[in-house]
Amino acid sequence: xxxxxxxxxxxxxxxxxxxxxxxGRSGAFEDVIAAFERLIDRTGGTDGAEAIRFPPGMNRxxxxxxxxxxxxxxxxxxxxxxxxxxxxxxxxLKCMDAEEDWTKEQKATDIVLTPAACYPLYPTIAKRGPLxxxxxxxxxxxxxxxxxxxxxxxxxxxxxxxxxVCMGTESHVTDFRQLWMDRGTAMMQAVGLPVEIDVANDPxxxxxxxxxxxxxxxxxxxxxxxxxxxxxxxxxxxMSFNYHQDAFGTKWGLTLDxxxxxxxACVGFGLERIALALFHHHGLDVKTWPEAVRQTLWG
Length: 299
Ligand code: ATP
Ligand code: ZN
Known about the structure:
The chain is an alpha+beta fold. It folds into two domains: 4-77 and 115-298, Bira Bifunctional Protein, Domain 2 (BirA Bifunctional Protein, domain 2), CATH 3.30.930; 80-112, no CATH class. It is built from eleven helices and twelve strands. The strands form three sheets. Strands 3-7-8-12-11-10-9 form a seven-stranded mixed beta sheet. Strands 4-6-5 form a three-stranded antiparallel beta sheet. It starts with a helix and ends with a helix. The mean pLDDT is 97. Bound molecules: adenosine-5'-triphosphate and zinc ion.
């Protein structure tokens, strides 16, 4: 049986690398992402967000402080490097020649792969000092890494997330989240994609994680916008809407100028998933997509 992933390879939209979840993208695939990002810009562009682009790696010290290894150790990716002398180099080459595990001698660098586009933002903004009472809004986009190899093209190991992050009072950031749930639904409808919004949880690790996940659900802290891509029974999360309460504000020392701890929320667009949803629903050749969809994306 040819899968959706096979068809994407055959159509030249994605390129195989030999690793599940790690693919090259064609110009046509990238053009869909670029067009969708312009739709995001048109939708959120007048909100006055400050745009920041971090590279796909972040400061390991910030990553450690974030608590990511407590919640999602199974997904994290760290950058290791050879830090030895010439003698160590000789044993490295010997080891590789013998096809033994040469990676054991690699040492952790100061960089880890970014797990979500907003992770580098909080410590960066905390350094600036208190936020205005009117809050703050940021526009981010980054490649993110998650160690979740899969043959589902919608579950990649390196993929892009476009995010808006809001910091302010509880009502300010929850209004922001609701606004983007409505906007996200309207945007997907405008490009002819069927959507459903549902409460969700993050994939917290282990038995203790089950409790964290249940708690997150019970408090409606995470919603996802779901679109069928590889399965109709289990549609794929193409956007997520997260309310962190004051957890990040407390962790990073984000305060408002009246001294109160900031609440934060983020909304994320899974750019590859949205492109894949468009290809799945409208066909692998963008020239044959419905005119209304093409009009929304390319004007
Ligand atoms: P899922 O439940 O499908 O694993 P998630 O809860 O891990 O998704 P988030 O952590 O909220 O997703 O990430 C934000 C957005 O990034 C998601 O809504 C999704 O669109 C996208 N995303 C998450 N994981 C992947 C992945 N492995 N490949 C491609 N896109 C992803
Ligand atoms: Zn996930």
